[in-house]
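INPUT
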Amino acid sequence: MRWRTIGVIGGMGPAATADFMARLVAGANAARDADHPRVLIDSNPHVPDRNAAIAGTGPSPGPVLAGMAANLLAQGAEVLAMPCNAAHGWANDVRAVAGKRFVDIIDTAIAAAMQHNTRRIGVIAIGATLDGRLYDRASVPVIAADRVLVQPLVNSIKGGDTGPAVATAMAAIAAGLVADGADVIIAACTEVPLVLGASAVAVPLIDATAALASATLAAARLG
Amino acid sequence: MRWRTIGVIGGMGPAATADFMARLVAGANAARDADHPRVLIDSNPHVPDRNAAIAGTGPSPGPVLAGMAANLLAQGAEVLAMPCNAAHGWANDVRAVAGKRFVDIIDTAIAAAMQHNTRRIGVIAIGATLDGRLYDRASVPVIAADRVLVQPLVNSIKGGDTGPAVATAMAAIAAGLVADGADVIIAACTEVPLVLGASAVAVPLIDATAALASATLAAARLG
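OUTPUT
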């Protein structure tokens, strides 16, 4: 197999970037080292806070993300991915540098969700993703879980807690969206799938990280 | 927490690099994104084959590894790690570029093994690690598992098979070293700990990848 080099604008958070890398490795379906794509990762936990930026209380992450993208391209990356939903509020800053070489997590997650004869999408996301209205580009109605419930769980996961209490609370959030009529759920924050699996949700669950990994590999594959 | 930037000379194999990244994330003990170190990873599966090089049938990986190291340093990495035991046969090529900024997996694994009142170390490694006599620098006798048993299991893991048959076979290899008098086992190939846990071995098991992650974080920590 031959591949384009993949660049990862990461660190938001670092565990989600590690999860994304593991999915790239598994998804390559390679029999030996040489059949994998080269992957360049910048796991940068110092990107300005997305929630603070969209609330107007902190600097925009856009210039830092564009700088990371430019640097990865200069290192030889030919396809770029950014495993963080909220950061896609500044996706246009990345696209200004990378153009069509950038694979958008929101587009890929919505496309995956629409493969289920979907009438209403439920998203589990944090404030910056919701305030940026990132999932409103879907062609069907989108309902969102209460950010007041989601954010503390995401904070716990970022702090390393992926235990049963966090997992149970996340499953309850998904169940609430199903009760409100969602027939597909998108785990629209890259920390969410670290505790929420398909078996814990009564309707199809779209793991945005997994969808991005698949789309990134598809864009990188040369034959 | 403040950290130096970590650079990872990776891709040997890609799954072991993903495992190493996950261990850096977990080991940072960070409560939020900003408390993690920045990590730059070059997961390059096109490094010349280590077994072929030491057998004299392929090119040396040394120049490629040194080039990756120089590039990571130029990107801002201040501490370098290479999660592949066999590649340390060319560690001096990396040290020529990085000096003391390079954290050596062999040194760290031996140091971890010697914390158990150890009289004889058993290593599970592939041919290039054994032929390079990398673990012979230990201050106690070292015995090695039969490479003819180890290599096919490593190949299976590199091909994505981490199932029970591979795990059981790896545990049997460890048991054989214990029967031969090893009182500590070093998982001295970064694919080995992907299927072998401490609970499957009757004596202390040193995961060289985990030891390298700890030592790398210690070298990167600024306070």
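end of record. The longest strand of chain B covers residues 6-10.
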